[in-house]
Amino acid sequence: MFHGSMVALVTPMQEDGAVDFESLARLVEFHVENGTDAIVAVGTTGESATLDEQEHCEVIRRVVEMAKGRTPVIAGTGANSTSEAIHLTRCAMEAGADACLLVTPYYNKPTQEGLYRHFRAVAEAVAVPQILYNVPGRTAVDMNNDTVERLASISNIVGIKDATGNMERGKDLIERCGDRLDIYSGDDATTLELIKLGSKGCISVTANVAPREMHQMCAAALAGEYDRAAAINERLIPLHQKLFLESNPIPVKWALHEMGLIPAGIRLPLTLFSDIHHDTLRQAMKSAGVI
What we know:
By secondary structure, the protein is of the alpha/beta class. It has helices at about 20-35, 55-65, 80-95, 110-125, 135-140, 145-150, 165-175, 190-195, 210-220, 225-240, 250-260, 280-290, and strands at about 5-10, 40, 75, 100-105, 130-135, 155-160, 180-185, 200-205. It contains twelve helices and eight strands.
């Protein structure tokens, strides 16, 4: 359903942690103007873990209103409680989101059968198109390709964000499910290679600060213009790396603040980006041409 560069949008906050809706509107315009192919609102990069349910639904509603149909909006609605995930997914559908992105339930460490039943329950409860999200490095649970293949038979499960960074697994996933699911990279550093294998694009952290470049890279790769895509990606590699010097979204929020797009706020238990890394990330931003 969605192709290209989809930004895992940060949630801008004031220094006291309050959501900054004025800056949120500025970010949405920034992405529309720079060609971002879809906006993911309140995914894990959007600090979904520390927004309460009311804030979560309100940010989704506002992003849908701000986008005004100019770019699709995918709402992050995953949770480690199945009932909460259903509630958030229903809120997103009622707000007009084009699809929902659901991360694997974190901390609980469900079995593969539990993962299957969790995602099936959400899909059966809410008719909106849904994208699975597997990021074992953050959730401590890994949804294997057998489980994804089972879920691919459910009509409104339309894609998966694979953030394993494992090309062999990605290739296997595309070969098994690529005719039924759109596979997206959730790992900026390996996005180009996964597109070459048949992925339809990425859900990207880097796109927060380099939206035009990520859009152009993905568009070129999807068109089979691999040399052009590689040339663009070469400039972005330092960003792909340095935006993870500390836990996401700490570095990317600092970078956007450095660009004058958002205030410096972030919610505990996350803290401000360590001073020792500022020059390193700033140089990566310069190399990419975003400052």
